[in-house]
């Protein structure tokens, strides 16, 4: 009789341990799913952020080129006027061909 009761208690412990093991396996699957999802979500977010940064850099470079061209044009015009004034002071002039 005592052996039967011990056997029943032992079987109950095994059953509880098996249920606990199944519960942990379920938690492990869910955890792995979340970790994978976060990993790929972060990768996608980083990819999108990199794309946006590249696009902003492209536009910034384009704007810098435009500003540089305007500044160079202004500089060339200013230097041309200064050169004409210097020549004018010496009684000289630049011949400008008109179309």
From TrEMBL:
InterPro entries: CFAP141 (IPR029375). Pfam families: CFAP141. It comes from the Eukaryota. This is Uncharacterized protein. It comes from Tetrahymena thermophila (strain SB210). The lineage of its organism: Eukaryota, Sar, Alveolata, Ciliophora, Intramacronucleata.
